[in-house]
Please model this.
Amino acid sequence: MSDCLFCRIVAGEIPANRVTETKQFLAFRDINPQAPTHVLAIPKQHVASLNEADDAMLIGELLLFARDVAAGEGLADDGYRVVLNTNAGAGQTVFHIHAHILGGRAMRWPPG
Ligand code: 5GP
Ligand code: ZN
Model:
């Protein structure tokens, strides 16, 4: 999708601080970090949100990719949070599915 911000990051049309990538997924640092470590993990293929997702393998592998990114950032032992905001009421602003990987500070519950 040429008008999608994250598709444009995948295509290299918009710069991003890339962390790692695989054939299917890309991880890059959030431009407005909410924790000492804040990385976004996305499928390279466009899916607008969890509501539109129909490929169980893709979503499962996205979660394992996020787990691997967190481990690579040194967060596995202390802990980290993986968040998928879905639709506006949950705070989704970019409609290309992404997992937020947040760590490096204590996380509160319930989330705001
Ligand atoms: P959402 O609010 O949709 O769950 O998360 C979108 C995230 O994308 C936000 O945390 C926001 O800071 C991040 N973001 C928005 N535009 C850009 C950008 O151009 N580059 C990067 N790296 N992150 C962005
Ligand atoms: Zn997209």
User: Anything to note?
Assistant: Residues 34 and 102 are 7 Å apart (CA to CA).
